[in-house]
Amino acid sequence: MKKLSIKKKIIILYTFLIALLIGIDFYILDTTASKILIDQAERGVITATDEIAALIKMEDDGPYLESGDDEGAFHFYHDGVIFLIYSGQNISYGSTPTNFDSTLSISLGEIQIQEHNGMTWVVYDVSMSGGYVLRGIYDIQVMADSLNRIILFAGISSLVVILLTAIGGFLIIERAFRPIKKIYKTAAAIEQKEDYSKRIETNFAKDEIYELAEMVNQMLDKVEKSISREKQFSSNVSHELRTPLTVMQAQAEYLLEKAENITVKEEIKSIIAQVSFMENIVTQLLEITRSRQIADSEMDILNLSEIVEYTAESYSGMVEEKKIKINVEKPKFSTNTVGNQTLLIRVFSNLITNAIKYNKVDGTINISFSEELDNILVNIKDTGIGIPKAKIDMIFNPFYRADESRTPNDYSLGLGLALAKEVVKIHGGDITVTSEESVGTTFVVSLLKVK
Length: 451
Ligand code: ADP
Fold this sequence. Notes:
The protein is of the alpha+beta class. Helices cover 51% and strands 19% of the residues. The chain folds into 3 domains: 159 residues, no CATH class; 84 residues, Orthogonal Bundle (Helix Hairpins); 153 residues, Heat Shock Protein 90, CATH 3.30.565.10. The chain is rod-shaped.
């Protein structure tokens, strides 16, 4: 029950409640109807037997049973009641109906119920003069059968009512939950694409869910603004740092030329290295900023497999150095997409250099293509050191390095994946990663295909 959706829980509980109420109603109907049936049968037998007993004239040799159609004539069957006349324990007049046990003892003025061979009889005995007894026997089965038919019909219609209630309930709840589905879809889209510009459509009734959606939208406004402020800040800082860093670099190089003392020279070289490291950071940060401003006019139809192949080839030197085998599969379908060539080359360069950097000596890199709905997937799979599970969600964050001690050289700034993610997002795609420590990592870049 815990894992069921609220919708299913409500439908199950409320159908169960309706079924329970109908069940209780049904039970009351069944027991009261049977009681009424027996009461009525008892009253009918008593009245009919008393009436007939009053009609029978007694003569010296026994009861005079006038027959025929006249009023007052005696009939062994009247108003559904069968009559027998006993003398002591023996039947003197009339014949026992089939399946009635005639040995049932006489009990004057009292109702007896006999259940025999699947039949139910209501029996009433009245004493007459001369030691005779008039017994009225009523077959309750006919009425019970009609009652059972009515109850069966009521049972079937109750099942139909329960079914209709469940269907009706499902439709009502489905409708009531539609806005919640919208909120969920928007939240899922934001979570997947990290696109904080999306908002929940609030074109539904102004109820509590509407207020919730409005509140979520207001929150998204704030989140979007703060993200954009943060991006603007890093862009401004990079711009501001660029010129002083270039000046520092030039001045340090000038000082290096002029310096005569070896120790001073070494110190200046170290300054130059640090400055160029900082320049590197600034350049990459500016690249991220610039990639966000890419215009539609800078996008072309590109063949992804060609771009990937070209990029992989440009790293052949690095691959050979580490004795790594790199295989780029030829796709059997069109891998055309719309994008900016320079930026997409940057993306695949980052992913391929990472796959080399974090691979083992003698490792392999397999690059394959697949299709999923409207997307082309580029799978870059390496046999490297892998990424710890706890850190995998952070690797796309700027300046994040999964393990600084393992980072192979100073040029690992932790900005490559942040740029790659940003660029792919701008192209309407996404990058996902799966990894197993000491086994390898697979990055999947999905981009929209064009026909
Ligand atoms: P870096 O410049 O450090 O490579 P990236 O943004 O490209 O920065 O990557 C961030 C971090 O993600 C890296 O420092 C590394 O720890 C981890 N990483 C990226 N790609 C791989 C990979 N193919 N295998 C293992 N770890 C990787």
